[in-house]
Amino acid sequence: MPRPEKWTADDIPDLTGKVVVVTGGNSGIGFGAAKAVARKGAETIIASRSPERGQRALDALRTEIPDAKAELMALDLASLASVERFAGEFAERYQRLDVLANNAGIMVIPYGKTEDGFERQVGTNHLGHFALTGRLLDVLLATPGARVVNVSSLAHNRAELDLDNLLYEKGGYGEWAAYGRSKLLNMLFTFELQRRFEQAGIDAHALAAHPGFSASNLTGHMAERLHMRIGLAIFNRLIQGPDMGALPTLRAATDPNATGGQYFGPARLNETTGHPVLVAASAEAHDEADARRLWEMSEELTGVRFQALEADGDRG
Questions:
Q1: What are the DSSP calls for 206-261, one per residue?
Q2: One of 168, 173, 179, 263 is an active-site residue; which one?
């Protein structure tokens, strides 16, 4: 039998002259991704909501990769005003954006609302990245072959979608359920964005990735409970590290053979660990009617329209 492919960060091509934004690039798989693209020559922007954590990450990256072209920019995906500021500042500094890695996220938190009144997991993980992508669309479209990579999760496979109660306005909130829903929304957004790129005849690509089981800071708040702290300590020793967990994102972002609409995840043990390969999304993630309705709702909620993709009129 042929040996399974083992794509690694060594397979990333030279990225000199390219610009990459990694949201949540200050820790976990985001930091792993930022280091990998910086090592290959990309101008790397670590987008972080925390100036202190972001600066520590940037210092660590520059220590490990002294010749890295990297900078820190403030971004809080739970604030539409912050998203708008980030996009405006980015457009002033850069004329191209080769990869937007929508990696940042929060996971399994108690119910709460963002600055703009959205349930926090859906508001941050989906609506924040939807708005960011829309705000950066002109720079993306000015870059031939630009890629948007949305980081989802295995949790999207078990998610329940209720677009009539998208933000749990009618109740029914559950920490895990809301996380899974936000990751399904990432997938619906990815495939709908790719369809719209294609219909507009635009040379840009939307892809998705998931890290499998990888050590990260997403579950940090859960460690406030003693039994969870013990369980997480054991769990994090058994699973792959963040640099390995970053590989699906990196393959989607940089593999010359990757293309729009593809989804990458780990190859082994039911996609929980291993080197990145093409994997299948759930049937719900491919529901075009849901994706169109979600898109319209996301535009209304965020006030961000992807006007460059509407050349032929609103698709309705």
A1: EEEE---SB--STTGGGGGSHHHHHHHHHHHHHSB-HHHHTHHHHHHHH-TT--TT
A2: 179
